[in-house]
What we know:
Chain A is an alpha/beta fold. Helix content of chain A is 40%, strand content 13%. Chain A folds into 3 domains: 12-55, 434 Repressor (Amino-terminal Domain) (Orthogonal Bundle), CATH 1.10.260; 67-161 and 301-330, Response regulator (Rossmann fold, 3-Layer(aba) Sandwich), CATH 3.40.50.2300; 170-298, 3-Layer(aba) Sandwich (Rossmann fold), CATH 3.40.50. In chain A, strands 2-1-3-4-5-11 form a 6-stranded parallel beta sheet, sandwiched between helices. In chain A, strands 7-6-8-9 form a 4-stranded parallel beta sheet, sandwiched between helices. In chain A, strands 10-12 form a two-stranded antiparallel ribbon. Chain A starts with 11 loop residues before the first helix and ends in a 33-residue tail after the last strand. At the A-B interface, helix 4, helix 5, strand 2, helix 6 and helix 11 of A face helix 4, helix 5, strand 2, helix 6 and helix 11 of B. Chain A binds a DNA duplex through helix 2 and helix 4.
Amino acid sequence: MTPPEPRRRVTLADIARACGVSPATVSLVLGGSAAVAAATRRRVEAEIVRQGYVYNRGAANLRRKISTSVALVVNDLSNPFVAEFAAGVDEALTAVGCVMLLGSSGESVERQRAVLASLVEHGPAGVILTPAEGTGVDDLRPAVGLHTPLLLFNREVQDGPWDYLGADNVAGARMATEHLLAQGHTRIAFFGGHRESSSCRQRLQGYTEALEAAGIEPEPRWIVECAPTRMQAATATAALFARDPAPTAAVTYNDGVAFGLMMGLRARNIAPGRDFAITGFDDTPEACAQVPALTTLATGPRVLGRQAVEMVLARGRETDAPRRSTIAPVHLVERDSSLTYAQTPPTTTRRRTRTPPSPSGRSDRG
Amino acid sequence: MTPPEPRRRVTLADIARACGVSPATVSLVLGGSAAVAAATRRRVEAEIVRQGYVYNRGAANLRRKISTSVALVVNDLSNPFVAEFAAGVDEALTAVGCVMLLGSSGESVERQRAVLASLVEHGPAGVILTPAEGTGVDDLRPAVGLHTPLLLFNREVQDGPWDYLGADNVAGARMATEHLLAQGHTRIAFFGGHRESSSCRQRLQGYTEALEAAGIEPEPRWIVECAPTRMQAATATAALFARDPAPTAAVTYNDGVAFGLMMGLRARNIAPGRDFAITGFDDTPEACAQVPALTTLATGPRVLGRQAVEMVLARGRETDAPRRSTIAPVHLVERDSSLTYAQTPPTTTRRRTRTPPSPSGRSDRG
DNA sequence: CTGAAAGCGCTTACAG
DNA sequence: CTGAAAGCGCTTACAG
Lengths: 366, 366
């Protein structure tokens, strides 16, 4: 009953020595091989717990030339959409016995390059990346090397040879715009985001398509860009009302921007959902908690996370397969923020996914 | 100009062979040793980029018996407080050239055990853990082994020998309660969270202390537990109004619970901040975006993340040092949710950290 | 200034 | 059913 050595990490060889067997045998026990005598197995297993042995998977992986990790590099972890996505990645990774290496670029291409280089040295089986704004091919190719599969999530990179997974931004923004049109709006803005990001360009495209299909010419002054944060959006609200006529509704780049816009509207004494209709994008948990609750597009980030893992591991198995680009469907979640009661009644029947939430409604104010 | 081999990963030995030097020399170049002739260095460096060599840090770490990773295991990544903390951990890790292994327990002790065991096998220099609710010593000791430093964040574990870092929950809840008392409230509830979590117990303690210091006996019916999620809190709101007299204010377990309570109140036609005062905990980004904005306690999760990295790495250097328990200060951020205009004017002067945000105030309703 | 050799902790045919 | 040996990709005294 000698207590195990304090400092030095106990190795497989220590266990072997203590049991009077070879390291090979201990390794077989660890691997659950049936070719080990039951008695031997028991002795080894007992010794393993007695000494508090912990397997060195790094050494094993080196020998076996395999990897049991996947790297995830995000632009901003405090974006709830991204956090949900990361949770989905984690779920899928755990299920296949892999571990996640996490890095964050903080939306800086420089940091992204450094983080990627550092993570790749740890030999992940693949890298999943939400590119920082303004990322180009040359920011990625050297950093990620020639042999590590890379999957881009949510933002495409011009001319990149990499797999891509993203939500159907075009269709989503189109649905949002059509929804507002159906409410009777004709002066609809597109609010927030930067055109450097592909997801913003795609959403803008869906917005434009829907307007044009309705015979409405998009008004450039009603397309206002801003950083996709709440505060920037609140500030940028002014641009919407700089000249008459002002829009009566806005398709926003994402939920965060929508919340900022709501703040900005209130500051001008305009009640969101009553005087001005808004749609978001992402369906963050906060969306349904806002008052009025935010009409938005659900993208299922958790499912996307699982899908990303599948895609990047598949790429590792078949390097020669053609580049894959997967566009995941989104769906509209109608809530109060887009129902502007001051508008002309819409021509189509108003469809509601939920009944008004509370007895204290806006009815006693209007 | 033969193109590099496609499949096989290029190794240091490949570079050495191509340059006609030994692996030792290449290793020295990589390490930036001054003992390499400038000409040799240049040749090697050129070959490294030509072949797209990527350093195998795992192999190097094995040989050098060091680790360049730290594991972070969180209970719930979609909690913004936790996400911010993770971002802080990431920042600090990048600064010291370490990489982050991320796992999530999803608040399940079982999964936590599995995740810890899996991560520890990858040999992190330390583990930072936000324990799942109900975690005991025996859930941690075997999983984490004898040699990996463990730092508990935000929730203590009974009788555990591990370092701890957390916000000053007792003082925070005391400040929140005193703030409500100063507004003239006497019927103050404590709302949300589970007593299994040490942070909840501590906040409850601060609440109790403040009440007793004011000569008020805590009313057990006004201490209502619920899972720390928005929806659970909305549902649990009923318990607050089950019997007369009902409380007029609540100190909540955290911001998420506070938002849920706001929803629950509105469903009962009670206006938060006007008919009922609320304080939160954490100062999540959402807190200032709510209407009314949430009075809450700022804990600085990002700074805590950096501090956690420092502590866990320090523990790795000095295994013999005594157990450290660090309590980080918090501060009250006063906003509208705790200013109930229906109350008797407070006896102390009302102090505001911010002026009312908008011209459209509640003044035109009151 | 450069190379040969040993070794980090594991695995895996191959013998016996 | 078990062991000896080689080797994964790197580093590091030690010679020269």
